[in-house]
Structures are given as structure tokens and as C-alpha cells.
Amino acid sequence: MNRAYKFRIYPNQRQKELLDKSFGCYRFIYNKMLEERKIVYKLLKHDKKALYNYKYKTEKDYKEEFDFLKEVDSKAIQSEWRNLQSAYQNFFKGLKKKR
Known about the structure:
The protein has 99 residues and is mainly alpha-helical. The protein contains four helices and no strands. Helix 1 (13-44) runs parallel beside helix 4. The termini are far apart.
């Protein structure tokens, strides 16, 4: 049996700003990484070996490029990277099953 709990939080103004900034950065980094993967896939989709061996930017690379990402929790940004990786793996697994 699974149970679910819902909690309501009442953040103060400083906490609201931190949450807004964090969620905005997570959304930004996810979209940037997704954009990079789409571009690389378009360019290398015919060369599977090069596509497989392509070195994508890491969370550190994005932090060096965009200073505002240093202000939020790095573990959550790494989690966004893992979420995108698993989304891509699930997508391509689904394509294989349809064939």
C-alpha cells in the first residue's frame, strides 16, 4: 500500500525569492541542456558512433558560462542533468520497442 502526504509550506519573502530563483535556474539549465542535445542530434544523427561519443557540457561548464547558476544548489542542478539523461534514454528505448 502506498501513502501520500501533502504538506503546505508558508515561506517568508526571502525564502520565496530563493525558491523562485532556484526553480528558474533549474528550468533554465534543463532547457539549455535539452537545446544542446537537440542540436547535436540534428548534426550527428547519421553518424551514430560520433553521436554516442560526443561529450556534452556538464553542470560545471554551464556554471562557468552563466554566473547566476552558482547561486543555487548544485545537487539540484545535477539532478536536472540526470532527469534529462533518463528522459532521453526512455525516449530511445521506446523507439526501439516500436520497431
